[in-house]
Design brief:
1010 residues; alpha+beta; carbohydrate binding; Substrate Binding Domain Of Dnak, Chain:A, Domain 2; 30% strand; metal ion binding; Glyco_hydro_38_N_sf; Beta-galactosidase, Chain A, domain 5
Length: 1010
C-alpha cells in the first residue's frame, strides 16, 4: 500500500528532530563529577554534603533499586557565555532516563552547595536554570549537588507482570541506571521559542478539520518554516522561522471558542509503585519545580492537594516549605481539596472521611491561612453517595474528579453538574472533559476537551489540569509556553492560565441550573479494589473502630475526672489511618513495601488506641479486682448501655449443636432460629421460627465458599473482570466437621490453601455467626462466600458512610449490568415488603448481590461477599498467608436491625478486668435509635468542649432529644471543622437537652460547651 502520511507532517517531524532539537543548546561543557552513595535509607542534605565524594565518570552505571546516590558537579562558566543576548546558562542532567513516562524511574533533586533547593530533574524536565543568587557570569564557579533516587521503573520493566522490585529485600543490588549527562549548557532562547511554536502549530494541524482554510493556512506556514531555517545555522535563522509562523499564531480564536481554564497540577500518589518514604521526596522535587516556574512565569498558577504532603514538606524540607508558603500567600501556589490525602471514598468509614477534612482543612488553615472551597479527587476509584453531604459539611462548595472517564461500559452524561448525595445535599461538580489530570496542553488534549464537553448547548467552560503527575514532576516551562500560544488561537480552545476558584466561580455563574446526578458515582472499573490486600482493609476497619473507642473513653475520663485528653496521640493515629486511606493504599494497588509499612502503621494505631482505652477506663474506674464490660457502640448490648460501662463480664452464650436426626449433620436451634448444617459443613436450612419461613432455597446451600479464576485483562490488583463468573469451584468437600464447644467446626483444604470455619448460633439472637481463619496461598483466584436466600428482592441495600443506598439486583440496563461488584461497609440487606435478611461483616467490602433462578416459584436472591483475592501485580505476594474474618446472617431483619448488627459486629463489648467495681453512665444519650452517635471527642481547639457527631441511620425523618450527662453551658451546631453554622437540625436547647429534627441520613455535628 502507498504511504499516506502527509509529506508536510513528515518533513516537519524530521525538521524538529534533526535540526531544531539539537540546536536548543549552542554549547555544552562537562562538569567535574564526584559521587557518594547513601548506604541505606535517604539522608538529609547536611549529612550527605559532609561525606567523602569520590570521582565519578559520566557513562558509569550507578543506583541499585531504591538507593540514593549524591552527585557533586563543579565547573566554571566559559568565557563569553554571559555576554550573549538570547541565551540562558543551565545545568543539564540525564540520570539515565527513559522517555516513555515521567515520574516512574530515576529522579533527582538539585541543591546549591549551601543547601538550598533549586529544582528537580526528571525524564521530561532535565534542565536546571541557575538561581538568581548564583548569576552565570563568565569565569564564575558553578557547584551543585544532585540527590539521585534510583527508583525502579516498575511499569516499564514488568508490563504489569509479577515483579520482585516492589520489595527492598528482593529487589537486588545491581545498578539500574547509567549517568548519561551532567554538564553546563547554553540554551538558545530563540531556538527554544521556535520549538514551542512548532509544538503548538503542528499539534493544531492534526486537529483541524480537513479541507478548511485554517488547516491549509497552518499547513502552508509549517511547510515554509522548514525552508526559512538554515540547517547550517539554526540559531542564526530561528527568528526568521518564527516570523513565518507569527501570522498564523496571531490569528485570534473565535468568540465562540471553548474556554479552557488551565490549572497547573501534579497528581502525586502518596504511595503506589514506590513507598511512602519516596513520596516525601517526590513532593519536594515537584514543589521545587513549581516554585522555580512560578518565579519565572507570570500568570502561572499551580494547585496541589493533600495536606499530608505539605506536612511532609514542612517537616523534612522547611526551607522549601517557607518558599511555598510565600507563593501561597501570593495566590500562585493554591492548596486544594481540603483533605489529608486524596482518599479512597468507597471504603473509609463516615467518621474517617470526616477526619480527612478535619485534618486537611485544619492544617491548611493553621499553616497556610487557607480555607479550601473545593474537593479535589481526580483519581480515586469511584465516589460514595455520602460524599456530597460530607463535603458540604466541611464547608466545600465544589467537587472535581476525572476518574469516571475510565468507565468500561457507560459514558458519564455530564461534564458540569450538581451531584446529589443520599441526604439530598447537592454540590456543584466538574468532570474535566480533557479526560486526563496530566495534560501537556497539547492541541490534542485541548481538542479532546472541547469535543467531550457535554453541556455545549448551555455552557462553554472546562478545567484542564496540566502537568506531569502520578509520580509527580508537575508542569514544565514548555507547557506554560503552549498555554501562552493558545490563549487566543484560531481553531483552538482559548486557554487561560488560572486557579480552580476562578474556574468554578465562572462555571457556576454560567450554569446556575446545572443538571443533577443523584446517588453514587460508581466507577465501572477497578472493582477488585474492594477486596485486594485484605489485611490492609481489616487494619483500616479495626483502626476506625478502635479510635472511636479511644476517643469516647478519653472524653468520658476528661469530663468525669479531669483526665488529660491525649490530643497529640490521637491526632497522629488519625493521620496514619487517613494517610493509609489514600486511593492506592487502602484499595490494595501498591507494591509490597507499601503494605509492610501499612501493617506497621496499623499496629502503631492499635497500640495507641488500646493504651488510651486502658488508661481512660482505669481513670474512670480506678484500680481493683473488678470486672466490667465497656460498650463503645451506639446501641445497648447484653445489658450494657450504649456509650457506657456496666459491672460484670459480658455474656456470650451460644446454643450447643446436636446431631441431626439422620446423623448426617448437625442442628443449632434457639427460640428464634433453627439451622441445619450438612455433613459437609454447609447450611442446608435456616428457618425463621417466628415467621415460620425457610430462607435457604430448595436444593441450595448457604455459607458456601466459592473459588473463581481471577485473571483480569490488565490491571491485576485493580480489576475484577466479568469473565471471572465463568469458572467456579464450589468448596463443598470438608476434611472434618465436628462440634467444638458451642460451634460446628469445619476444616477444608483446596489448592494450596486451607481454612477453618466455625458456625454458631447465639442463645437469644436471630442470627447465624460464621468465623473464618484462612491460610491462603492461591494465585489469581477469588474467594467468595455465598448466601442464596429465598427472598424476592428487587434491590439490595448497602451500608455506606452515614447511611445506606439501594442498588438494583437485576440487570435491566447497561448501568445495572456494569455494577456487578459493589462496595458495602458493615452490612448489606435484602428484603421483600415486611421481611428481610441482613449480612454483616467485620472486614469485608466487596459484594455482589443478584437475583438468580427462575420458574414457577420465582427468583431468589444470592448475596455474596468477596473475601480474598490473589493478584500478581504490583505485589506478587498480595494476600498470601493467614486471614481472619467474621460474618453474620441476621434472620428476619429490617434496616434497624441491620444497622445495629453492623455496629455489634465491629464494636464488640470490651471486657476490662483489674479495675474498681462500678459502672460509667454515658456522657450522652439519644432517645431515638434511628439517630446514631458516630463520634464523641473533645474539640480540636483544645477548649475542652465536647464534640458529638451523629446521623440519621434508617432513611427516615426523625425528631429526637440528645441529653448530656454532665453540666453544660451551651450546645451549638457546627460543621465538621467545628465552626458554628446556622442550625439545620438543632431546634432548641434547654439545660442539658437538645431537641433535634433530622432529615433522612442527615449528618449533624454538635459542640457541647462545659
Amino acid at each position: 500500500m502507498p504511504d499516506l502520511t502527509d509529506p508536510v507532517e513528515e518533513r516537519l517531524a524530521r525538521f524538529r528532530h534533526e535540526r531544531v532539537v539539537p540546536a536548543l543548546y549552542r554549547e555544552r561543557v562537562p562538569l567535574e563529577v564526584t559521587a557518594w552513595q547513601a548506604p541505606g535509607e535517604p539522608v538529609p542534605f547536611d549529612e550527605a554534603a559532609r561525606q567523602e565524594f569520590m570521582p565519578f565518570e559520566v557513562g558509569t552505571a550507578y543506583g541499585p533499586p531504591w538507593a540514593t546516590t549524591w552527585f557533586r558537579a563543579t565547573g566554571t562558566v566559559p568565557e563569553g557565555w554571559d555576554s550573549r543576548e538570547g541565551t540562558a546558562v543551565e545545568v543539564v542532567v540525564d540520570l539515565g532516563f527513559s522517555d516513555t513516562e515521567p515520574g516512574f524511574q530515576a529522579e533527582g533533586l538539585v541543591w546549591t552547595a549551601d543547601g538550598t533547593v533549586i529544582k528537580a530533574v526528571e525524564p521530561m524536565n532535565q534542565a536546571v536554570p541557575l538561581p538568581a543568587s548564583s548569576p552565570a557570569r563568565q569565569g564564575s564557579a558553578v557547584e551543585v549537588l544532585v540527590e539521585a533516587a534510583s527508583n525502579p521503573h516498575v511499569l516499564e520493566h514488568m508490563q504489569f507482570n509479577p515483579t520482585h522490585l516492589g520489595n527492598l529485600e528482593t529487589a537486588g543490588r545491581d545498578p539500574l541506571y547509567r549517568l548519561r549527562r551532567l554538564e553546563l549548557a547554553l540554551r538558545d532562547v530563540a531556538v527554544w521559542e521556535l520549538d514551542q511554536d512548532l509544538f503548538a502549530l503542528s499539534g493544531l494541524l492534526l486537529e483541524l478539520p480537513a479541507n478548511t482554510q485554517r488547516r491549509a493556512e497552518v499547513r502552508e506556514a509549517l511547510d515554509r518554516v522548514v525552508d526559512a531555517v538554515d540547517p547550517q545555522d539554526v540559531a542564526g535563522t530561528a527568528q526568521a522561522g518564527r516570523d513565518v509562523l507569527r501570522p498564523v499564531l496571531e490569528r485570534p480564536a473565535s468568540a465562540s471558542a471553548h474556554q479552557a481554564y488551565a490549572v497547573g497540577h501534579a497528581h502525586i500518589d502518596s504511595a503506589w509503585l514506590w513507598p511512602v518514604r519516596e513520596t516525601v521526596r517526590k513532593v519536594a522535587r515537584t514543589f521545587a519545580n513549581v516554585c522555580d516556574l512560578i518565579e519565572r512565569e507570570e500568570q502561572f498558577v499551580f494547585a496541589a492537594s493533600s495536606a499530608q504532603q505539605y506536612a511532609w514538606l514542612k517537616e523534612f524540607y522547611p526551607g522549601l516549605f517557607e518558599r511555598v508558603r510565600g507563593h501561597v500567600q501570593a495566590g500562585r501556589f493554591v492548596p486544594v481539596g481540603g483533605m489529608w490525602v486524596e482518599s479512597d471514598t468507597n471504603m473509609p468509614g463516615g467518621e474517617a472521611l470526616a477526619r480527612q477534612f478535619v485534618l486537611g482543612k485544619g492544617f491548611f488553615a493553621r499553616e497556610l491561612g487557607v480555607d479550601t472551597q473545593e474537593v479535589w479527587l481526580p483519581d480515586s476509584f469511584g465516589y460514595s453517595g455520602a460524599l456530597p453531604q460530607i463535603m458540604a459539611a466541611a464547608g466545600a462548595r465544589w467537587f472535581l474528579t476525572q476518574k469516571i472517564s475510565w468507565n468500561d461500559s457507560n459514558l458519564m452524561p455530564h461534564s458540569t453538574f450538581r451531584w446529589e448525595g443520599i441526604d439530598g445535599t447537592q454540590v456543584f461538580t466538574h468532570f474535566p472533559p480533557v479526560d486526563t489530570y496530566n495534560s501537556d496542553l497539547s492541541a490534542k488534549d485541548l481538542a479532546r476537551a472541547e469535543r467531550n464537553f457535554t453541556e455545549k448547548a448551555v455552557a462553554n467552560r472546562s478545567l484542564v489540569p496540566f502537568g506531569h503527575g502520578d509520580g509527580g514532576g508537575g508542569p514544565t516551562r514548555e507547557m506554560v509556553a503552549a498555554a501562552r500560544r493558545t490563549a487566543s488561537l484560531e481553531g483552538s480552545p482559548a486557554v487561560r492560565l488560572t486557579g480552580p476558584v476562578q474556574f468554578f466561580t465562572d462555571a457556576q455563574a454560567e450554569l446556575p441550573e446545572a443538571p443533577v446526578w443523584s446517588g453514587e458515582l460508581y466507577l465501572e472499573f477497578h472493582r477488585g479494589t474492594y477486596t485486594s490486600q485484605a489485611r490492609t482493609k481489616r487494619g483500616n476497619r479495626r483502626s476506625e473502630h478502635l479510635l472511636r473507642e479511644a476517643e469516647l473513653w478519653a472524653t468520658t475520663a476528661a469530663v468525669r475526672h479531669g483526665t488529660n485528653y491525649p490530643y497529640e496521640d490521637l491526632r497522629r493515629a488519625w493521620e496514619t489511618v487517613c494517610l493509609q486511606q489514600f486511593h492506592d493504599i487502602l484499595p490494595g494497588t501498591s507494591i509490597s513495601w507499601v503494605y509492610a509499612d501499612a501493617e506497621a502503621g496499623y499496629a502503631r494505631v492499635a497500640e495507641t488506641a488500646e493504651r488510651v482505652v486502658r488508661d481512660s477506663l482505669r481513670a474512670l474506674l480506678g484500680e481493683g479486682g473488678g470486672f466490667v464490660a465497656a460498650n463503645a457502640g451506639p446501641y445497648a448490648v447484653d445489658g450494657v448501655p450504649a456509650l457506657g460501662v456496666a459491672i460484670g463480664a459480658p455474656e456470650r452464650r451460644g446454643v450447643t449443636p446436636h446431631a441431626d436426626g439422620d446423623g448426617a449433620g448437625f442442628v443449632l436451634e434457639n427460640d428464634l432460629v433453627r439451622v441445619r448444617v450438612s455433613a459437609d459443613g454447609l447450611l442446608t436450612s435456616v428457618v425463621d421460627l417466628r415467621a415460620g419461613r425457610e430462607l435457604v432455597p430448595e436444593g441450595r446451600e448457604a455459607g458456601l465458599l466459592q473459588l473463581f479464576r481471577d485473571v483480569p485483562n490488565r490491571w491485576d490488583a485493580w480489576d475484577i473482570d466479568r469473565t471471572y463468573q465463568r469458572t467456579v469451584t464450589d468448596l463443598v468437600e470438608a476434611t472434618s466437621v465436628e462440634v467444638v464447644g458451642d460451634a460446628v467446626r469445619v476444616e477444608r483444604r483446596f489448592g494450596e490453601s486451607s481454612l477453618v470455619q466455625t458456625i454458631s448460633l447465639p442463645a437469644d439472637a436471630a442470627r447465624v455467626d460464621l468465623g473464618f481463619t484462612v491460610d491462603w496461598h492461591e494465585r489469581q483466584k477469588l474467594l467468595k462466600l455465598a448466601f442464596p436466600l429465598d427472598v424476592h428482592a428487587d434491590r439490595a441495600t448497602s451500608e455506606i458512610q452515614f447511611g445506606h443506598l439501594h442498588r438494583p439486583t437485576h440487570a435491566n440496563t447497561s448501568w445495572d449490568t456494569a455494577r456487578f461488584e459493589t462496595v458495602a461497609h458493615r452490612w448489606v440487606h435484602v428484603g421483600e415488603p415486611g421481611y428481610g435478611v441482613a449480612v454483616s461483616n467485620d472486614s469485608t467490602y466487596g459484594h455482589d448481590i443478584t437475583r438468580v433462578g427462575a420458574g414457577v416459584r420465582g427468583s431468589t436472591t444470592n448475596v455474596r461477599l468477596s473475601l480474598l483475592r490473589a493478584p500478581l501485580f504490583p505485589d506478587p505476594e498480595a494476600d498470601q498467608g493467614e486471614h481472619t474474618m467474621n460474618v453474620s446472617l441476621a434472620v428476619g431483619a429490617g434496616i434497624p436491625q441491620a444497622v445495629a448488627e453492623g455496629y455489634r459486629r465491629n464494636l464488640p463489648l470490651r471486657a476490662v478486668e483489674g479495675v474498681g467495681e462500678g459502672s460509667v453512665e454515658p456522657l450522652l444519650v439519644v432517645d431515638d435509635p434511628a439517630v446514631v452517635v458516630e463520634a464523641v471527642k473533645l474539640a480540636e481547639d483544645g477548649s475542652g468542649d465536647v464534640v458529638v457527631r451523629l446521623y440519621e441511620a434508617y432513611g427516615t425523618r426523625v425528631r429526637t432529644r440528645l441529653t448530656a450527662g454532665f453540666d453544660v453551658t451551651g450546645i451549638i451546631e457546627t460543621d465538621l471543622i467545628e465552626r458554628t453554622v446556622d442550625a439545620s437540625a438543632l431546634r432548641s436547647v434547654e439545660s442539658r437537652v437538645a431537641e433535634l429534627e433530622l432529615r433522612p441520613f442527615q449528618l449533624v455535628t454538635l459542640r457541647v460547651a462545659r
